[in-house]
């Protein structure tokens, strides 16, 4: 289901995926099956989203972002893709930011460019992630820090 007010230019939207109001998805973006792309999201062309992922309202995914299967991205989480942004000056290639399978990113979290968020990691609301996050780590704060690791039995 693609809402009539969404601007979807990509031809690669998986079966069962829902795209809600006022989303913009640029040509070349790849979105898997059974995803939920909530209202007011922007997805650039060099973005990949795996199956069964949820992208909540107000999330912008910039070139170089890879979201694997079964990922949750909370409302207004912020991804960046340029380490040294300048107006009208673009790098030849953006660093790749990867969110691994089963990870969750809380509302308003900030993910700096070129990082990897490990499988089943949990990023707390409002955290500012400045370095790679290992699998099953719980990260909170600014700057983000690991406060513990999640139980392997309760994270799927």
From TrEMBL:
Instruction: Look up the domain of life of the source.
Output: Bacteria
Q: What is its EC number?
A: 2.3.1.197
Q: Name one GO molecular function term.
A: acyltransferase activity
Tagged with keyword Transferase: yes
Record InterPro entries: Hexapep, Hexapep_transf_CS, Trans_hexapeptide_repeat, Trimer_LpxA-like_sf
Q: Which UniProt keywords apply?
A: Acyltransferase, Repeat, Transferase
UniProt keyword annotation of Ribonucleoprotein present: no
Family, according to the entry, reads as follows: Belongs to the transferase hexapeptide repeat family.
UniProt xrefs under PANTHER family = ACETYLTRANSFERASE, ACYL-[ACYL-CARRIER-PROTEIN]--UDP-N-ACETYLGLUCOSAMINE O-ACYLTRANSFERASE
**Protein name per the record:** dTDP-3-amino-3,6-dideoxy-alpha-D-galactopyranose 3-N-acetyltransferase
Q: Which organism is it from?
A: Ralstonia holmesii
Gene name as annotated: fdtC
